[in-house]
């Protein structure tokens, strides 16, 4: 029988199938950060349990870490406690930790792939919704809650109801100047933030096959913002070339063997999805959000919907959202002045994002009205930025590089956008207060962020 990519990986990981109940699934890789893991470790302590397979779990603090002076003690007591607790848990349970100051520290969804811990065919979990990022490798990767973190630590398994499957096809080629982030924001705008609830999504089609691994990670990262359990892309030569040679990638004979298996990981012809939709890649424009959820987006040259374009049931929240943002129905945002630019996060904090940003700002100057936070996703990204001399281009254009971490993506550290200020951000959430109390977030890709940083306004990077 024809199988989807999802079915193949899922079926290969079933430990116990229960009729009318969740399936027990084996987990190949487990990532942990400081926010969602403390109670899980305490739970193990209370039960007198060890971590079942310590080599399968990797820890990195990312949410609470400062992006300046990481060599000094963390000032905020709550953040310090969370980061210290993660270190203690790693030591007590014998787990690998890329702690603060470690050359491999960074956002957990950035360091997994760059170290070769993320591989095709795997089941991957983390107590974090953006675990969907790892699906870019052709893996079943999804976020879990803290009680499930405890379950995985104790048993290397998890109980999961089988999600429905959806395939989204992007036919044809993207237009020049359109990025992976635009694909994702466009898709959420079409499907809405609840449009993929209950589904595991496979992204497919020519425009997806043409993406680099980092671009695929950006697309899969945002799956959760349309409610999907996760997103995935079939592995191909691009995937294999990215994984090969990385620290934890299989080597020698083991590589040849696994590669033969990875090549079978694609949806068979005739495989049935519970839902299938298609978009014309050429209809995607550089995309920005105007509201307070990632589905409230539009082409950069477009206009915010007018009230009559909104379903009656949604009008109150639409008005509330625009009120928070200080925008009016029907308004165009191109040319509107902004205050902050944030380049970073597990969505767009990788080397290609910094290359794209640097290429745009090269020979130009940062606008005086803009405060720009350029935050690499990891120390490996930071090192690469310097190795390529991108830091010099950025400095000459008036920018400074900060130290890696989640930073202003959710403002758990000091990087908070002040109330009422507008931030063009390459991250993935624009909820009220996400980047600081009262902060107003406009989500966009790295090129739109670069254009905003040099003009001080919302600007189409193609002009
Ligand atoms: C802190 C964590 C639980 C959260 C998530 O799960 O996504 C965070 O990473 C976020 O992006 O909001
Ligand atoms: S960068 Fe943002 S989205 Fe990603 S894990 Fe950190 S807080 Fe969550």
Tags for this model:
463 residues; alpha/beta; Aconitase, domain 3; four-stranded parallel beta sheet; 32% helix; binds 3-isopropylmalic acid; binds iron/sulfur cluster
| Radius of gyration, whole Å | 21 Å
The helix/strand class is alpha/beta
Instruction: Label the overall shape.
Output: globular
The count of strands amounts to 18
Low-confidence stretches: none
- The fraction of residues in strands falls at 15-25%
On the 0-100 scale, what is the average pLDDT?
98
* The CATH fourth-level homologous superfamily of the largest domain: Aconitase, domain 3
Biggest sheet character: 5 strands, parallel
- End-to-end C-alpha gap: 50 Å
Number of helices: 16
The structural domain count equals 2
- Helicity level: 25-40%
- CATH level-3 fold name of the largest domain: Aconitase, domain 3
Assign the CATH architecture of the largest domain. 2-Layer Sandwich
């Amino acid at each position: 029988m024809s199988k989807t990519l999802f079915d193949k990986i899922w079926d290969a990981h079933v430990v116990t199938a229960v009729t009318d109940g969740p399936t027990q699934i084996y987990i190949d890789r487990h990532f942990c950060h400081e926010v969602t893991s403390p109670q899980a470790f305490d739970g193990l302590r209370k039960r007198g349990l060890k971590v079942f397979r310590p080599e399968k779990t990797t820890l990195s603090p990312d949410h609470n870490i400062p992006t300046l002076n990481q060599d000094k003690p963390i000032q905020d007591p709550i953040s310090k406690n969370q980061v210290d607790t993660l270190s203690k848990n790693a030591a007590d349970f014998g787990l690998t930790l890329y702690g603060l100051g470690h050359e491999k520290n960074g956002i957990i969804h950035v360091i997994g792939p760059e170290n070769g811990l993320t591989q095709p065919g795997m089941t991957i979990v983390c107590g974090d919704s953006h675990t969907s990022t790892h699906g870019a490798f052709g893996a079943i990767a999804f976020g879990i809650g803290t009680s499930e973190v405890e379950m995985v630590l104790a048993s290397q398994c998890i109980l999961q109801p089988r999600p429905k499957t959806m395939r989204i096809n992007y036919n044809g080629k993207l237009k020049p100047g359109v990025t992976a982030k635009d694909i994702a924001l466009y898709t959420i705008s079409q499907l809405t933030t609840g449009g993929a609830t209950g589904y595991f999504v496979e992204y497919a089609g020519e425009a997806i096959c043409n993406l680099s691994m980092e671009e695929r990670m950006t697309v899969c990262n945002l799956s959760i913002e349309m409610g999907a359990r996760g997103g995935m892309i079939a592995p191909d030569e691009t995937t294999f070339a990215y994984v090969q040679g990385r620290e934890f990638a299989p080597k020698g004979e083991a590589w040849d063997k696994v590669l033969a298996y990875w090549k079978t990981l694609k949806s068979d012809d005739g495989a049935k999805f519970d839902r299938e939709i298609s978009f014309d890649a050429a209809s995607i424009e550089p995309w920005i959000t105007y509201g307070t959820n990632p589905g409230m987006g539009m082409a950069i040259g477009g206009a915010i919907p007018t009230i009559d374009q909104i379903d009656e049931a949604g009008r109150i929240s639409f008005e509330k959202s625009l009120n928070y943002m200080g925008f009016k129905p029907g308004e165009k945002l191109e040319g509107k002045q902004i205050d902050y630019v944030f380049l970073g996060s597990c969505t767009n904090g990788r080397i290609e994002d910094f290359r794209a940003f640097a290429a745009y700002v090269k020979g130009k100057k940062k606008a005086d009205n803009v405060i720009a936070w350029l935050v690499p996703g990891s120390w490996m990204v930071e090192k690469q930025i310097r190795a390529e001399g991108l830091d010099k281009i950025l400095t000459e254009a008036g920018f400074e590089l900060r130290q890696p971490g989640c930073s202003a993506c959710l403002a758990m550290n000091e990087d908070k956008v002040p109330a009422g200020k507008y931030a063009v951000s390459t991250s993935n959430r624009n909820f009220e207060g996400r980047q600081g109390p009262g902060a107003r977030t406009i989500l966009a890709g790295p090129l739109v962020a670069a254009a905003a940083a040099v003009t001080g306004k919302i600007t189409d990077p193609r002009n």
